[in-house]
Description:
By secondary structure, this protein is an alpha/beta fold. It has 8 helices and 10 strands. Helix 2 (65-76) packs parallel to helix 3, helix 4 packs parallel to helix 5 (152-180) and helix 5 packs parallel to helix 6 (201-221). The longest helix is centred in the middle third of the chain and has 29 residues, at 152-180. It starts with a strand and ends in a 6-residue tail after the last strand. The model is unreliable at 1-48 (pLDDT under 50).
Amino acid sequence: MVICLKYITTEEIRLWFWCSAEAGSDGLQLQEIEFNHQVSENYQEEMMAGKLDAKVAIITGASSGIGAATAIALAEEGAQVAITARRIERLNEVAQKIEAVGGKALPIVTDISDETQVNSLVRHVHTTLGRIDILVNNAGMAALGTIEDGNPAEWRRQFDLNVLGLLYATHAVVPIFKAQGVGHVVNLSSVAGRITRAGMGVYSATKWGVNAISEALRLEVHKHNIRVTIIEPGLVATEFVDNISDPVAKQALEARFKALTPLQPEDIARAIAYAVTQPPHVNVNEILIRPTQQE
């Protein structure tokens, strides 16, 4: 039997092998062989490099939930992350977490539903960090409730954030991606972008829109080496429920959450990190991810 234990230091790689064999009445004899190999500085750097080193990512809606978790996950892979939302205090908290583990974060207050602000955001990131490689369109909202009892102002706000905000950001980065010859757009959709249910008609409409926009975009830009990914989460433990104003819809959704173990924001962040760290010739077009117990 051979058991191998490998560990790496900053100065060298040591491979230790303990080879055991039967040795008559003496039982087992252990033979220890040590191999020392000095590692070049370049190899050390390669071993410590993240999959997204030298990459720049913009994550919208990054002050909490999936956006914050994604910013941290991409920073851990070496990306410089521009994080944007409307709540500067929360953005600064996320930035501090990233910087505490050696990452680089650029917090920028932006209302993603304001086209002028979005264009300014993209220009500022491109000028400050030199490039943009990944756009994660995460910002959005859900205002659930029946169409009869719905609030038209909330309908408009959902389309402003979930659809138009996504379009504004994508419209601003695609020319940069084309000039670079590479880029990746990740759009947060939902299981509700595939199926709908009573009380979710308007929200589902926005997410069906996200799916349609994403596939059309993929067909338009794939020859420019630009990738497009749709992420479709099921129930995720975020502030999603807290922001629902309709008491009946909120109670119904809370009951669904209590009936299962929901996904965590980090689960979705790992899916996004998986998609954006694939080799350049691989485009993960769509990831549908539900809690195991969700219907």
